[in-house]
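User: Can you fold this complex?
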Amino acid sequence: MGVLSIGVFSSLIGSMNLDFALKLADAALQKGHKVNLWLSGNATSLVKKDQKHLKDYSTGEKPLKALLEKGVEVCTCEACTLARGIQKTDAIEGVQWNAMHWYLAKIHESDRVLHIGGE
Amino acid sequence: MRLAVFVSDLRSTVDTLERLKAEKLGIVLVGNGVYHASLKENGKSSPLLDKPASFYVLSEDLETRGISASEVDSRVKVVNYGDVVDLIFNEYEKLAWL
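Assistant: Here's the predicted assembly.
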């Protein structure tokens, strides 16, 4: 089996690209692959905990927690996250905080890389 | 190079694809990109489908937009997320997102 690293810049709810990334990560896990997920830019809004799941709205917290439980390594860009006023105490437990070099290292050791840009 | 390009939008992607050269090219239509697989303008299908590539469209994104498989152009293969994972690992090596 292989290693897939996904980098996402798209925003929570504002763009369906983030939903796609979470579903693709889950599908890859089900096929037995290892998945790394890097969040940058507006995608860092995904790590804020206590998101209210409104009817007919996409939601990130529940699928993200499920991926964490299944062993996906999730890392948020510390600078981007803090710049958006999200502190570590606000964040979903299990998400790593680091800088771009985390993503580059994961890319280096991955079989496949999908980078999803921002809006 | 075996390149899979994810097209997630309907607007400005065709010209970008013109500049991409690959020994084997796959175009995976997701999000609003799925409209390339079904929309017709003045009776003509999307110019994207004229490219020398293999075409795939994500079934879940068709369904959320009310597009049935029967409306999909015959050149495009309907796939699910599991199929996309297999394409990524088995058919292509580099991935791009438009």
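The domain at 3-110 of chain A is CATH 3.40.1260.10 (Hypothetical Protein Ychn; Chain: A,). Residues 17-30 of chain A form the longest helix (14 residues).
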